[in-house]
């Protein structure tokens, strides 16, 4: 049987979210300049902490605080294990931009097939892992685990789209719904 | 930390060191042709946050230097604040010239408003937006005007539009992109614009505009666009814009584009990716034990 985690709670809570932000920061540097430079990777890592922060906010919204089976720090650490597929996808995406001429990569983006099916597969894989997390750690029923997953995703993704896209997202939404 | 993670961390650090060493601005002496200062500019740049960009306005200013750009217009989606921040920072560090702008992200059209100071509503018609841009002293550039956007540019809008993107990543993405941008450009006497529509994928200034201005000030650049004094090279190397200026420049502009990356860059990207993937794979378990809750002290 594995040993209980020996790390202090604070480190446990930030190590995997930090890794997500570092991967995103490095991806930004690679895509923009074709190299990993501190000038780009360091600030981008800081800016892109909004992704793990929103994920943590979503998790906090559905976490059973009154009868928590593990500390919230440990829950964050376990929950973020499911980000690994996404992080690997971002590495691959950044690698394509870093190693190939941008004109060629843009030409590849005209077809959705190289991008969307892998992203969809990873989204499903990640959702399955998180479903298992909600079943196994807080011990949710299947229906409740689905609900928790949906609420967590809603908070993280709508928050992310609003922060990243800003007024353009509002324009699309408002135009679609006649607001 | 296990040995695989140590190796991965070492690779990442080496990649960062190599990339940081290679990260130097490509400075070139100012170019004067026919009495004009020729400036390389990118008029369609998005920033972080709230504009689907990956870098903050101040990072864009520094990145523009690395990409040998003399001027950029930071064009937030339906907001001008990012451009104002960028201009403040550029003035603090001595350039390049930053022109505050907005990409008016409207249902029927997208338009770059370069040289404005207040946000223009996306609920305007194209003609109304152009009138507001002009009232604020800016120039109106049709952003990636593919066929789907043409209906919004009625005769009134076309008569007052200043410029149109003829070179843009959409040219690479879709076979019809280049054809439709050229058809739109030829509908009226417009300044030719090349823009990267920078969102973080690919380099800033991938597509650029050569502006023939009196000097490198914001006002001179805007005045040059109004005067249609621009030259743009497309993917085939053909030049678009003012025919006299194209002849005058006679190939002197292409040599000013950024040099291909060197061996330090190659090492940085290869070692960086290996380091990241190694770090993710080594010890970062994707699947945890179902007994996890039993092994954690309550």
In short:
Chain A is an all-alpha fold.
Radius of gyration of chain A: 18 Å
Spatial separation of the terminal alpha carbons of chain B: 26 Å
Oligomeric state of the chains present here: heterodimer
Q: Whole-number average pLDDT of chain B?
A: 92
Largest interface: A-B, 69 and 67 residues
Major beta-sheet overview of chain B: 11 strands, mixed
The helix/strand order of chain B is HEEHEHEEHEHHEHHEEHEEHHH
- Helix proportion range of chain A: over 70%
Name the poorly predicted regions of chain B.
Answer: 292-298
The residue ranges of chain A in which pLDDT falls below 50 over 5 or more consecutive positions are: none
What class would the helix/strand composition of chain B place it in? Answer: alpha/beta
Number of strands of chain B: 11
Instruction: Indicate the structural class of chain A.
Output: mainly alpha
Beta content of chain A: under 5%
State the share of residues found in helices of chain B, binned by percent.
Answer: 25-40%
The string of secondary-structure elements of chain A, in order, is HHHHHHHHH
So how many helices of chain B?
12
Number of helices of chain A: 9
Rounded to an integer in angstroms, the radius of gyration calculated over CA atoms of chain B is 22 Å
Mean pLDDT of chain A: 91
Structure description:
The complex is a heterodimer of chains A (179) and B (298). Chain A has 179 residues and is mainly α. Helices cover 75% and strands 0% of the residues of chain A. In chain A, helix 1 crosses helix 2 and helix 7 (116-136) crosses helix 8 (142-165). The longest helix of chain A is centred in the first third of the chain and has 25 residues, at 9-33. Chain B is an alpha/beta fold. Chain B has helices spanning 3-22, 57-66, 81-93, 126-135, 147-150, 155-160, 169-173, 175-185, 218-226, 243-249, 263-281, 292-295, and strands at residues 31-33, 36-45, 71-77, 97-105, 110-114, 139-142, 163-167, 191-194, 209-213, 230-233, 239-241. The two termini of chain B are 26 Å apart. In chain B, strands 1, 2, 3, 4, 5, 6, 7, 8, 9, 10 and 11 form an eleven-stranded mixed sheet that branches. Residues 292-298 of chain B have low confidence and may be disordered. Chain B is globular and about 70 Å long. In chain B, strand 4 (97-105) and strand 5 form a beta hairpin. Classes of the chains: A mainly alpha (179), B alpha/beta (298).
């Amino acid at each position: 049987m594995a040993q209980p985690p020996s790390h202090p709670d604070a480190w446990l809570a930030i190590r995997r979210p930090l890794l997500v932000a570092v991967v995103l920061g490095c991806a930004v540097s690679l895509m923009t300049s074709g190299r990993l430079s501190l000038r780009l990777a360091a600030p981008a890592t800081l800016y892109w902490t909004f992704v793990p922060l929103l994920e943590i906010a979503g998790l906090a919204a559905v976490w059973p605080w009154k009868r928590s089976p593990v500390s919230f720090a440990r829950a964050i650490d376990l929950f973020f294990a499911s980000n690994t597929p996404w992080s690997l996808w971002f590495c691959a995406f950044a690698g394509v931009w870093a190693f190939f001429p941008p004109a060629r990569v843009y030409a590849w983006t005209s077809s959705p097939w190289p991008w969307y099916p892998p992203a969809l597969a990873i989204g499903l894989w990640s959702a399955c892992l998180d479903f298992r997390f909600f079943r196994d750690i807080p011990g949710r029923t299947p229906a409740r685990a689905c609900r928790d997953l949906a609420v967590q995703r809603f908070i993280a993704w709508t928050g992310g789209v609003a922060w990243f896209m800003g007024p353009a997202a509002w324009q699309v939404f408002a135009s679609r719904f006649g607001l | 930390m296990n040995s695989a993670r140590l190796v991965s961390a070492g690779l990442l650090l080496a990649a960062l060191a190599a990339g940081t060493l290679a990260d130097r601005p490509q400075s070139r002496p100012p170019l004067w042709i026919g009495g004009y200062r020729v400036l390389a500019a990118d008029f369609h740049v998005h920033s972080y946050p709230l504009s689907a960009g990956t870098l903050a306005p101040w990072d864009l200013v520094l990145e523009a230097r690395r990409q040998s750009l003399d001027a950029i217009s930071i064009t937030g989606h339906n907001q001008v604040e990012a451009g104002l921040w960028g201009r403040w920072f550029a003035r603090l560090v001595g350039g390049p010239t930053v022109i505050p702008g907005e990409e008016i992200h409207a249902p029927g059209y997208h338009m770059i408003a370069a040289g404005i100071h207040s946000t223009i509503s996306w609920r305007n018609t194209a003609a109304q937006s152009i009138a507001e841009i002009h009232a604020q002293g800016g120039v109106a550039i049709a952003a990636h005007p593919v066929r789907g956007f043409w209906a919004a540019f009625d005769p009134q809008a076309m008569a007052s539009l200043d410029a149109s993107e003829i070179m843009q990543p959409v040219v690479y993405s879709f076979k019809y992109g280049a054809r439709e941008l050229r058809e739109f450009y030829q509908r009226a006497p417009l300044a030719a614009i090349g823009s990267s529509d920078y969102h973080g994928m690919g380099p800033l200034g991938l597509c650029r505009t050569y502006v023939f201005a009196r000097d490198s000030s914001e006002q001179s650049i805007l005045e040059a666009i109004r005067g249609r004094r621009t030259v743009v090279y497309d993917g085939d190397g053909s030049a678009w814009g003012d025919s006299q200026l194209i002849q005058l420049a006679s190939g002197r502009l292409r040599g000013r584009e950024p040099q291909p990356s060197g061996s330090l860059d190659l090492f940085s990207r290869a070692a960086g990716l290996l380091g990241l993937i190694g770090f993710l794979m080594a010890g970062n378990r994707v699947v945890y034990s179902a007994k996890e809750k039993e092994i954690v002290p309550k």
